Input
Amino acid sequence: MHNENVLDNPVWFSITQKHTQQAIDYGNTKMYHPDFTPFGAFIKGADTASAILEHSKLTPSFFMVGEKPKMPSSFKPPIQYVGLQMILYKKIDHPITESIVELKPSHQEEILGLVAIAYPDFFKPKTNTLGRYFGIFKDQKLVAITGERMQTEHFTEISGVITHPDYVGNGYAKQLVTHTSNKIFEKGKTPFLHVDQTNLGPINLYKKLGFITRRKLEFWQINS
Output
């Protein structure tokens, strides 16, 4: 069993262990470049104000993950969201009846088109380059995706669980999460994910598949 302490600060350890090339290093505060994800993190007790001020020149809205950050004096207080961090310890036993394909760079336009219809602001133009993405096609169009986002040495985050509204209810999300998590296990890593605590539908889906709530994690939205 790998040490799970890195998951208490998943953005920080993803940036320091695996995604160093996709990050901006402000010292005791580190951020993903806004083309990849809107997330940043910091060492406990760090004064984040100057890093937040600098990063806001690149993007008007982003999230600090973890304890409440120290803000520049000219900024409004950050908006708090609480997410559940859920983890999976064994392969999911759920039938896969659909044809699932690993998405390539050539699918980029289709991925972003689906995201624009079905998903909020967390998905950025290069999010899907942080890991592998898998999809289901119907009628020659991409209708459901799931992929990998944050990654540490031993843990990989499942993210982007998206189904086109016209195709909801066909069990595509369950099959894609099953497929993606099993691919993560094949690499000798442990899948985890984050979901807003008010998002009861997805939470129930993940629980049915065997995910266990590990902890609550605070996401602080910063708007410059």
About this structure: The mean pLDDT is 95. The two ends are 41 Å apart (CA to CA).
